[in-house]
Amino acid sequence: MQFVGEDLIYVGVDDKQIDLFEGMYSVPVGVTYNSYVIKDKKTAVMDTVDAAFEKEWLAKVEKALGGAQPDYLIVQHMEPDHSACVQAFVKKYPQVAVVGNKSTFVMLEEYFGKGIADNRVVVTDGEELSLGKHELKFVFAPMVHWPEVMFTYDKTLSLLFSADAFGRFGASDDNGNWTDEARRYYIGIVGKYGAQVKAVISKLAAYPLNIVAPLHGPVLSGEALNSAVQSYIKWSGYEPETEGTLVAYTSVYGHTKKAAELLAQLLKDGGEEVETVDLARDDWAECVAQAFRYSKLVIATTTYNADIFPAAREFIDRLVERNYQNRTVGLIENGTWAPVCAKQMRAKFEKCKNLTFAQTTVKIRSALNSESEAQIKALADELL
Ligand code: FEO
């Protein structure tokens, strides 16, 4: 068992068996559902875990409690990866008071029916709960990532239980760098709600933070915490992290790929940081996260059924849904008899704020020729 504080015990679990997180995100290195027990005069359990781990989690909590009865189950977030075991917990410990806000209990009854958690403490934003030595303060964080979300600030430890915020994909034995899988998680899941994340970051400025304990991924402190906060400031403000270009392509017979590679090479030759992704084959959430990472994006794709090739169309939809903005965008279209997708891509991006389109739009008829190569050179020059 991992201790994160003097009387704070980690009782989370690793999920390495899940195929798709939230039914859509691949998690090749798994994911954790974090939960904690605070032992004090009064004992509190912070959140539950996914239904698949009910037995394992209940056993861990029982061991952590060491024979004590829990006084409170604090429900910070009602998404079932954290709330699925509330009913089982209440059944096992019927005296426990469930702590949440008004919206928490509406959702709790939607999932489990009326009568769940009759013993409840309904808190308001900023309300405090004393466990003895540990003074907890609830900080509402609506839409980070659901409307009922609340963080819990432990004043004694200067520790923030941050719900999904500062979460990361990856099981507990994944030692990869924090930022890549945290970015893929944040942009994919919370990216649309930058304004709300920004608002809660401002609210947190009033609280000294030594430790952040999210519901997914590692507990953060020291330099790792400072760096995570800086990343969140950038991500929630839709600011690029890296000056450079993501070249995102689809290709049916290899000709559009050649165009994308030619552009990438010209940009690299000009000293640009460039990454190239295949939208039909690479992980879609990573492609989206990389688009947010870079300051410039070029999409190279084909016309298909008089529309945008599906993988590129979905990619743009996913960017637009997540409030993609403040970037430069270049377009390369290919088509054998009626290339029209550049116009359609541009129309899709119309909902986005503050996008600058490159003046050069490259039109390829089937395969590169000297004319389209010259256009790619012009696009590269413009981006550089
Ligand atoms: Fe990890 Fe929004 O649930």
Written account of the structure:
The protein has 384 residues and is an alpha/beta fold. It has two domains: 2-236, Ribonuclease Z/Hydroxyacylglutathione hydrolase-like (Metallo-beta-lactamase, Chain A), CATH 3.60.15; 244-383, Rossmann fold (3-Layer(aba) Sandwich). It has twelve helices and 23 strands. A hairpin with a 5-residue loop joins strand 7 and strand 8. Helix 5 (178-190) runs parallel beside helix 7 (222-236) and helix 6 (194-204) packs across helix 7. It is elongated. The mean pLDDT is 96. Bound molecules: MU-OXO-diiron (FEO).
Task: Supply Rg.
Answer: 24 Å
As for the number of domains, it is 2
**Beta-strand content bin:** 25-35%
Instruction: Write the CATH homologous superfamily of the largest domain.
Output: Ribonuclease Z/Hydroxyacylglutathione hydrolase-like
Q: Cα distance, first to last residue? A: 52 Å
Number of strands: 23
Bound molecules: MU-OXO-diiron
SS class: alpha/beta
CATH topology (level 3) name of the largest domain: Metallo-beta-lactamase, Chain A
Name of the level-1 CATH class of the largest domain: Alpha Beta
Short characterization:
By secondary structure, the chain is of the alpha/beta class. The mean pLDDT is about 95. The chain contains 12 helices and 23 strands.
